[in-house]
Structure formats: C-alpha cells, structure tokens
Here is the input.
Amino acid sequence: MTTSDLAPTGAGTARRDPARLTAIALALLAVLFVAVNVLVSFTLTTKRLDLTSDKLYSLSPATQRVLDGIVEPVTLRLFYSKQLGTKVPSYGVYGERVQDVLREYANRSGGKVILEIYDPTPFTSVEDRAVSYGLQQIPLEGTDGTVFFGLAGSNMTDDVETIPFLQPDREAFLEYDLTKMIHSLSKGWIGKVGILGSMKLDGEVRMGQMGRPEQTPPMVVAERIKEILEVKTLDSDIQKIPDDITILLIAQPNNLSPRTLFAIDQYILGGGKAAIFVDPFAESQAGAMTGGPMGNVPSSTLQPLFDAWGLEMPTDKVVGDRFGARRVGARDGRSFITYVPWLLLRGPNLERNSPITAQIDGLAVASAGYLKAKDGASIKLDPLVRSSPGSMLIDVKELLGPMPEPEKLLRNYVAGPERFTIAAMVTGNVKTGFPEGRPALAEGQDDDPTATFDTVLTESKQPIEALVVADTDVLTDRFWVQFREFYGRRVAVPGAGNGDFVANALDALTGSSALLDLRGQGSSYRPFEVIEQIKREADRKYQAKEQELRETLTETQKKLDALRNRQAGTGGPVALSEDERRQVQEYQRQILRVRSELRGVQRSLREDVERLESKVLFANIALMPILVALFAILLAVWRVRRRARRTMVEA
Here is the structure.
C-alpha cells in the first residue's frame, strides 16, 4: 500500500475528530445561549413565570378585574431608600418583592397604572417630595438622615392615597393594600355609611341624675368610622334607603317597622352592601352585668331577611366559651371568676386570611349568638370570628334576672364538639323577604311620598355582600375601652381590637366586590427551620439552666441573710463558723459550676449551628462542582472504553 492511498483516510479522520466536534458544539451552544437571552430580554419583557409555592409574584383574578375597570391612569410612586435594604437585609428582600409586584401591576394594567420608583437620599428634592406626601421617615443607625419605604398614589384629579410605610408584617396583604389603593384612586371618592337601628353610635340625649337632659358622647367605634367614611344617621322609621349610601350599618335592629325592613331588603337586593349587628342578648340594653327583667329579652334580628337568605341566628341561645372567657368580679367583691358568655377572642378564633381580622389582636364580645347557613341555602358563609373548640350554647333564660350567676354557669359548663361562628361575611344570590310586595304601613306610621321604588325586586341583581355579626355589644365602649384623664382630656385606651374590626370591615365593603375575594398570601420570608429548631432547643436548655442559677443565687442569699441577721443586734461584723464558711464556699462552687454549664450550652448552640452552616456551605459551594467533575470523569471513562471496544471490533 502506498502513501498516497493512506492520505485521504487521514484527512477524513481529522475531520471527524471527536474533540474538535465537541469544541465546536460547545461554542455553538454558548452562542445560542447568548442569542436566546438577548432575544428574550427584548421580546418577552412582560412575560413572567412564578414558581413560588404561594404565588407571591402573581396577581389574582380579583385584582385583574379591578385593573380592567380603571378608566383614567393611576400613578404609583414608590419611595424606597436603598440604604434601608443594605443595612437591614430583611427589608431588602421585601423591597425587591414590592418592586416586582408593582411592576406586575403596571404590566397587567394595559398602561393604566404608571409606576415610578425613587431613592430618596437625604437632603434632596426627592426626599422633600416624599415628606410632602406624608410618608413616614425612619431614622436608621449608621446612615445620614432618615430612610423611607412608602407608597403614594394619585389620579388625574390629584386625589392622593398613601401607604406611609410598607411594613413587612403586613406582607400577606400586600396585594390587597395595593389593589384597594388603585380602586380608591380609580373611583375618586370614599363613600358614605348610613347608620340605622336602636343603638345610638353617635351619642344621644338622656335624662341625667338631676332630671336634666345630658348629651352622651359618641362611641369610640363611631369615631373610628368617621376617620375613613362620611357618616349619616338614618331615621329608625325610614321607608327607603337614600341612593348616596354606600354601606348600610344596621346596629340593634329591634322594633323596626315592616316598611323599614322592606327598605333594607330592597337596598341589599339592589347591590347595596351592609354591615349587620344583631344579638340574642344585648348586654348594653340589659344593664351593667345584669340580666334584664324576667321575660324581657333584649334581642334583635332581621328575621324576614334572614329567612329568605337561608341564614339562622337563633335568639334563644348565646355562645359560652371557657377558653376565651373573661374574668369578672365575684359577688364577694374581692376575687374574680370566669364568666363564660363574655369572651375575648384571640389567635385561632380570628380568621387570619381575611384583611378584616388578620391583624387584630383580640375581639371582645358579650353574650354573643351564632350564625349558621340552613341546609340547601344559596348563600356562602365565610367565618371571620369563631369560638374555641369545646364551646357550648347557653339558654338565654340563664342570663335573665337581677344578677347573673357566673358560678352556676361555670359549674354547669359542658364542652361540646363544635365551634360556633359569631361573625361572618355572607355572599350569594338571595330572594326577597317580602314576596307579596311592599307591606302596609304600621299603625300610626305616616306614608313617605318620596319613598318610591321604580321596580320592586324579588331577587338580588348580583350576589349580595353583607357582614353579619351576632353581637351588638362588640360596638359598645363598655366591653373594650377604658377611659383615662390626661391633663383634662378624656383619652380612650382600647383593650381589644373592636374598633379596628369595624373599620376594616367597612373599609373592605366600601371597595370593589373584587376586594372581598382577595385573601392573604404567603410570605417571602423562608426561615431555616432546622436552625430555628436548634436555637429553640438550646434556648429551652439555657432558660432551664438560667432558672437553676437564679434559684441557687436566691437560696445562697437567703442563707447569707440568715447568718447576718443572727446577731443583728450586736452592731458589729458577724463571725462565721467553720461549717458556715464551708457552706458558703460550696454554694459559690455551685454558682461557678452552673455558669460553666451555661457557657457550655451556649457553646453547644454555636457549634450545632456552625456545623449545620458548614454542611450547607459545602452543599452549595463544593458539592455541585464535585458532582459535575465526577460526572465528567465517569463520562470520560465510558467514552474511552467505548472507543477501545470500537477499535477492537474494527481490528
């Protein structure tokens, strides 16, 4: 065979060199990767993929409905000091999330939401602008001036809504707060609440002790309502709800005429929103810590409407809850006893996924009833406030009489299997409570010629939205507010979140129906659960040792005091015996031993955390390169062996 015969074969082998082909393929892949990234950055700027478990960066359909309803542009201005995120990493993480969510609002609004982001550095015009909006300034250690993390929104008519400071502890309701702001700016008005019922929230004139009329001050709840809405008190015999009423607040609706009940019925069927406070036993009307006279139960309900809706609120039972019960003064005047119908509901008793109750520490109710949807009812009951597991129902008759009997109620308490709903959001399509049409006038009632209805509705135009609370005492100052004098001023000191509960409910009802569909989301904070568990266990051990140290010190001090007091009358120093000196030295050694053990527990905590941290760092930094290198080695060995087998076959 000649040399010329071998030349073509060698050239072909060079062209098929695997190493060269691999290098070319890798180069082409790198070029393709860069090209795809450049293409995506220019063409898919509004496309997002949310892989978080709680969909933290995705907007709900309810928010999209609000964005679709914007007529004129809304401008949102975020004032976020980067120094805050740098100095406090948790705020840095939350700040990034807020910006991402705001960009999603702008992208999904079709140009109707304009986003502007500013970094208000000290002594600049941007800082002056943030101050002019009333955003909260926070002094931060290690920085010049103050920092901001607030949001200001405005519309075309220069209406302004602000969130003075975006608190991370309200992260679960970030979407709710932003959507509510946009909705308010798109509508441009705050709304009006009409108050109806026998409970005089805005105060009333009563006969004083001297036989003279006295004006009682407005309830604290009424003051809270006036902070967010315009308030109008309606006549108790009104025959049509005015068209300018945004929300109808019904408090203790006893003795309402059929015409007034019909007006309420038509208002709600026509799309009006309502907050309804009813009660099987109104303590505020029964007297202070007393039942009413026998046979005279101070109850209230909207029976015709509730029956048509399929909603039950029995007027012969109140909820007793031993776990949530408050303590009241006993008859002897010197001790306290649990009174199971008076409740202070906290934590799991409040719905934490609703913006109405999410951040309320506690809600005080007294002799509250319970709500329940009838079988086959078309309404949906979303509980906001519930009693504890093991609650029971108490007959209203047990509360009647000149004085209640807490001891007897406590003695007869039998825990049941149910939790009872005390407050709930009621939604759904309903029928009228007056199928025969507008009722006749009550005896002695004059007809109102202006109270005319173009159409008498027999069913709701759209799903109704009503907050129903089976307790009216939640509104009264007596059960949740204490008053103190401060330099001649009467200052209300709340002991529960009743005012915030009512204000939040009306605030939610004032907005779009979509706002009621928004629930709390998760948090972007993801703790290292194993490390937290180690810390909790070490803290538990440390506290036990610390308690042991304190007890030892206390006992030692008692011994020393006893020795000093043995000859207190001598006026001179006390000489300790040999046994006493040995005892003191023994206690001192015990103190040193316990302190040494405390240091050991702290050192163990640091070692456990550092050991786990080292493992995590190894997994994140070294493990993956090692696995990649191992895979490359195995792949190379496999390819060498395959090439060797192919060579042997060709040979």
